[in-house]
Specification:
55% of the residues lie in helices and 11% in strands. It is of the alpha+beta class and 256 residues long. The longest helix has 26 residues.
Length: 256
Amino acid sequence: MKEIKEIKEEREHGFEINLSHLLMVYVKKWWIIVLAAALAASITLTLTVNFVTPLYRANATIYVNNKKFVEGEETLTSADLSAAQSLVKSYMSIAESDRVLEKVKERLNGKYSAGQLRAMLSTAQVEKTQIFKIYVVHSNPVEAARIANAVAEVAPDEIALVIDGTAARVIDTAKVPSGHYSPDYSTNTILGGAGGLLIALLFLTISYLRDTRIKEETDLIELFNIPVLGRIPDYDQALSSRYGYGATKSKGVEEE
């Protein structure tokens, strides 16, 4: 137990949280923490499954270079490849431009506006190569593949028209995705459980800090800054600890 002088010094330096006591609160109330985490995880999963629309992502792959494909002349120099790699971002910008999207809109019979197509569309370079992917995210997997293929059909010709001496080819057409792209049920469930756990810990911490009951003599010293002269013993506890339950019979009493 802390000496009175140490307790007074702590009191003068301000309020401190006894981490060991707080940890014991967490241990004793472990079921609240587990229940809150499980409940939050279940609620999050239920909301995700029932109220979040699953999205599907299809992708097509396009190869570009800064040299026209000429029949019988398919060799490319390292300079051609390096130039193509540095221009990939320009090619991707063209694939996402109104010039391309307006023609994609016509191919899709005007079902989507250019703005709607842009919201579904994204592009990304494959590492540091002259290859990039066209991604389309849609709530219908068949539509996602159809739009991605429409962009892949239009983009190569438009890239060649905009940048002289450039050619592009479709490597892989988009296929209907078999699984949803988002939401991620596992991640959402884990995040929900973590949120419930934090809420439970916060609740227990606040309850601990708001608990002003006097539990031991050090609390009296901290509150009133006076030493404790004596204490009232717990006779029941003293007797039980001395004799114990089911104590043996006193000496001199013969067993039958």
